[in-house]
Amino acid sequence: TLEVALDHDLGDDLVERAHRKWLAIASARHRWADVRVLALSTATMIARSRAASADDRLGYDLSAFLHDPSDEVRRAALELIPTPTPKPLRPLLAQTLASDPIERVALAAAQALCADLASDGPKPILAALENKALTRLQALLSHPEADASAGALVDAARCLVADASAGSKRALVALQSHAPRSVRAAVRALGRR
Q1: pLDDT at 192 over 90
Q2: How many whole angstroms separate alpha carbon 154 and alpha carbon 188?
Q3: Could you report the per-residue pLDDT of 151-161, keeping only the tens digit for each?
Q4: Helices marked H in 28-88 — which ranges?
Q5: Dihedral of the alpha carbons of 144, 96, 18, 53, in degrees to the nearest 10
Q6: Residues 6+ away with beta carbon under 8 Å from 50
Q7: Which helix (H) or strand (E) holds 187?
Q8: What is the DSSP letter of 31?
Q9: Residues 70-88: what's their mean pLDDT?
Q10: Is the model's pLDDT at 121 over the cut of 60?
Q11: Distance of alpha carbon 85 from the chain centroid
Q12: Of 82, 113, 128, 154, which one is least surrounded by beta carbons within 10 A?
């Protein structure tokens, strides 16, 4: 991190080289997915420690990682997006939500897109959700995978609460009947805000 670099008087060029090396490992498709996820996480931490704030730079090319054949790597790339989500990423996140064949990856895209509704107004985020992405989100939350992340389910549900269409309301009712108790309570609380 930046603190370590400063404590050891590491030059910016050395830190940048370390970032590039970790990113190269993360991009090497012949490596195991868990090694690549750890490398991507490390590259992201280095990039953020160098940036003035976490919003300035992801530290990796999100679009490139979303085309990776490993669903673990695609999901990690989405989960590493800082909060608040940089606005230019919203269309790419909606596209990934709509089209990624792996439900966990699509749910991670929904979480990255919808989590900002905890503090932002709904119009720009809902505008990024086109019909195909919204329909996919409704389907994902109507019948979530048994081991889906509770945080991802709750954050994704924020988009359905904000949308308030009949399809979104049906999906929320289904989520509350299929999800674990902790998720049910959190989704009910979202509806009361």
Answers
A1: no
A2: 10
A3: 999 999 999 99
A4: 33-50, 62-66, 71-79
A5: -90
A6: 2, 12, 15, 16, 19, 57
A7: helix 181-192
A8: S
A9: 94
A10: yes
A11: 8
A12: 82
